[in-house]
């Protein structure tokens, strides 16, 4: 208990002295995670759609060649950036591009560091999202695509109006998962001098050598950010699901016109049932009936 109180005192001392630096690191972490997740989702959406464009053996040779080439490029991109650590990707992009271009492409200054960090986290997120989008698209019942084609919709119309709205809802949890991962994984951007939350911790520890109290602040800060992100994403999912309180439609103008609908109160022009029978029907619709009573 004594050690716990000592830790709390050290944390209070650190926070009161360095809170502007901690808050600045938190702000940079959130901005980088949000921007990179949005861009990465765009990259993943494009790659996932390109990976699921259908073609048959009867398609022209150029079309088959182009689609196979596109899928090969997407596959290489996904495997490379999913199979290597983000810290090495940051090193290769921040230091490798100037090296291979003899300084023609470089990331100088604070704006250059921001740009490199956004590029690294975005393309890493895009590699993971590409497979999530592909899985979301192929999870939709093929009958919906066939139905859309049957009424004359093109592949683009089918994708944008029928498939993608459902697929995006299915992959919302994965988008949230990647966002939370990005909040934590931005900590490796200190390797290219990006001043995020973990970089602030490293600087403060270097000044006062109080490693564990500063790490406790880091732990609480990252946990708070991820919990808030989880709550916000659950709220987005709930809003996308819509209201779960609804009533079945009891009157359809089309079938009323055809004379085949029996309104619980009025019946139809061809209905000769008694008023009591109509009342039983109305009560059945209101309270529900078992299969045996129908």
Question: If you had to describe this structure to a student in words, what would you say it looks like?
Answer:
This protein is 74% helix and 0% strand. It is mostly helical and 294 residues long. It has 2 domains: 240 residues, MetI-like fold; 41 residues, no CATH class. It is flat and about 80 Å long.
Please tell me how large the radius of gyration is. 29 Å
Report the strand count. Answer: 0
The major β-sheet equals: none
Helical fraction equals: over 70%
List the total number of helices: 10
> Could you report the average pLDDT, rounded to the nearest whole number?
82
Beta-strand percent range: under 5%
Order of helices and strands: HHHHHHHHHH
CATH topology of the largest domain: MetI-like fold
Low-confidence stretches: none
Overall outline: flat
From the 3D coordinates, which CATH architecture of the largest domain would you assign?
Orthogonal Bundle
Structural class estimated from helices and strands: mainly alpha
User: Could you state the CATH homologous superfamily of the largest domain?
Assistant: MetI-like
First-to-last CA distance? 69 Å
Number of domains: 2
Secondary-structure topology with pairs:
Elements: H1 2-51, H2 61-82, H3 86-100, H4 109-138, H5 142-150, H6 155-185, H7 197-208, H8 211-241, H9 253-258, H10 275-287
Helix pairs in contact: 1-4, 1-6, 1-7, 1-8, 2-4, 3-4, 4-6, 5-6, 6-8, 7-8
């Amino acid at each position: 208990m004594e050690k716990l109180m000592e830790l709390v005192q050290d944390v209070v001392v650190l926070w009161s002295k360095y809170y502007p630096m901690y808050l600045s690191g938190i702000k940079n972490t959130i901005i980088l995670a949000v921007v990179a997740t949005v861009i990465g989702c765009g990259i993943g959406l494009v790659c996932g759609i390109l990976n699921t464009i259908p073609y048959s053996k009867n398609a022209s040779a150029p079309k088959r060649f182009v689609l196979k080439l596109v899928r090969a490029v997407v596959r290489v991109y996904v495997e490379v950036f999913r199979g290597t650590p983000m810290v090495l990707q940051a090193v290769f992009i921040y230091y490798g591009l100037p090296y291979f271009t003899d300084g023609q492409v470089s990331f100088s200054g604070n704006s250059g560091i921001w740009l490199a960090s956004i590029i690294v986290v975005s393309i890493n997120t895009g590699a993971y999202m590409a497979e999530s989008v592909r899985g979301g698209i192929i999870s939709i019942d093929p009958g919906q695509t066939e139905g859309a084609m049957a009424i004359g919709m093109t592949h683009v119309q089918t994708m944008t109006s029928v498939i993608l709205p459902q697929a995006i809802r299915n992959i919302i949890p994965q988008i949230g998962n990647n966002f939370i991962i990005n909040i934590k994984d931005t900590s490796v951007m200190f390797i290219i001098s990006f001043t995020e939350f973990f970089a602030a911790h490293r600087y403060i520890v270097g000044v006062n050598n109080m490693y564990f109290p500063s790490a406790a602040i880091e732990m609480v800060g990252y946990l708070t950010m991820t919990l808030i992100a989880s709550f916000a994403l659950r709220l987005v999912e709930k809003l996308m699901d819509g209201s779960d309180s609804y009533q079945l439609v009891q009157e359809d103008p089309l079938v009323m016109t055809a004379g085949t609908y029996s309104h619980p109160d009025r019946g139809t022009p061809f209905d000769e049932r008694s008023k009591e029978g109509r009342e039983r029907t109305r009560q059945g619709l209101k309270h529900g009936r078992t299969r045996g009573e129908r």
